[in-house]
C-alpha cells in the first residue's frame, strides 16, 4: 500500500488540463460612417473581438517557448487597403492589441503567443471559451471620394500548443492544427466641405446711398469628386424678397448678396443656388485638396428711406447640398 501513493500522485499530475482551440468564422470590422475631412485629419479606430480562433479550457502555466499561435491576414483582392467605388484606397494598419506596439503585416505570419499578448488577454487561462481580438487604425492623409470602402482577408491560423502539463513541467499533449476563415473590413466615407466665410461689413454712412458695395468671396474645399451646390438663406429678417439687418431699436436696413460681380441674387432654392461648376476659381466637382472660390458682392438698397442711426446686424446661413 505504501508504494501506491506515489504512483497515484504521479497519475494525477500527468492528467492533461486541456485548452483546445479551433478556427471559427471571424467577426467583420466596421469603421462606420466618417466624413472625408475627418478621415483625412484624424485616425479612425475599430476592432473585432474575434479574429477567427476560439479557445476553451484552462491553462495552469504560461505559454512554453515552443508554443505558437500564428495568424496570416492575406487580402483577397489585388489592392492593399480599403477600396472604394472609384478605385480610391484608404490605408490602415492591423494590430495585435489595443496599442500600436504590435502591428500586423499583411501576408506575413504574426505569432500571438509571443510578446505576452495571449497571456495578457487571458485567452488560454480562461475556463470560459474566448476568441482572439484584432485592432485596426486608419492612416491620416487620405483624399478619397465618398462611398463604401472595403477589404476582405483570408485569415490562416497555424498553431502548435502544449495543452497538457505533467510532472516536472513536461508536455504530455500537444494540439497542432491549421485552419482558415475570412474577415471583411468596411468604412463609409460621407461627403463634406471645409468652408471659409468672412463677415460682411458695410462700415458706416450717414445715408443709404453712402454705403459702398462689399466685394469678397466664400471658399470651399469639398470631398474629392463630389458634385454640390451652395445656398445662402434669407437671413433673420427678410421682407419683400430682400434681406434686412436689424438694429436694437427694431429698425431695419435692407441689403442683399449677389452672385459674383453681377445682380443675380444668391439664394437657397433651386436656381438661386450656385453649383461647383459655377465657382469663379477652380470650377467643377470637389477636389479634396484645393479651394473652390465663389465671389459675391453685397449692397445696401438705395431705394429705401434712411433708417435711424444705430448698429444693424443680420445672420445668413450658408449650406452645401450634395
Automatic annotation (TrEMBL):
Entries under Pfam families matching the protein: SCPU (PF05229)
Source organism of the structure: Pseudomonas bharatica CSV86
Protein's name in the database: Spore coat protein U domain-containing protein
InterPro entries assigned to the protein according to its UniProt record, in alphabetical order: Spore_coat_component, Spore_coat_U/FanG
PANTHER family: MEMBRANE PROTEIN, PROTEIN U-RELATED
Domain Spore coat protein U/FanG per the UniProt entry, residue ranges: 15-155, 181-317
Source organism superkingdom: Bacteria
